[in-house]
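User: Quick sanity check before I run a bigger batch. Here is a single chain. Can you write out its predicted 3D structure?
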Amino acid sequence: MSIFKTDNQNSAYQQHQWTALHFLYLLGMMFVLASILTAAMILQYGFNELPCPLCLLQRLAMLGVCFGVMLQFRYGLTFRYAGISLLFAVFLLIVSVRQTLLDIYVRPGHDYVGSAVLGLHMPVWSVLIALALILATSLQMIVWGGVHYRSNAKIKAFPLLYKAAFVLSLYVLLIAAVNTASVLVQCGTGQCHTTAYVLLQ
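Assistant: Done. Predicted structure follows.
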């Protein structure tokens, strides 16, 4: 048996490594979003900072980006599922820009909701997060978009990445479930307010 790899073997090995890097990239994206959503929940439950309706839409948009990533974990690397993430990132940008413009001039009843983090309030952070997500998804398409084996790549071929993706996906689904229940308690069947949980009054 030859100790030297053939061109086909080298090509297959490079494809394997390149695919692993792609999945690792997606894991990093979702880990960052899960961390941001966790921080938002800590501010809500630990410091009693109830989210406004536009804040809730921003959380929904971030969860939507995660959903697009999870579809790529489940069904393979395709532009269709990357496009879902990109669509929700654009939605996040629209909502966060709207809220930032509404609150950029502080006036009674229209000041920023919640505490500032590193000098910026959450809507402004969401604008930056949305731009970063759009850039990250665009880079994903540019770097890996022309790879012919992309649609056949499955994360199950990488046991450690598969386990990490499975655990992280379950955690994101848990975040989504907690937020859904929280919205129902906060808003009931009516309009959301940032003063109290409607169903607890």
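Residues 7-46 form the longest helix (40 residues).

User: Great, the batch can go ahead then.
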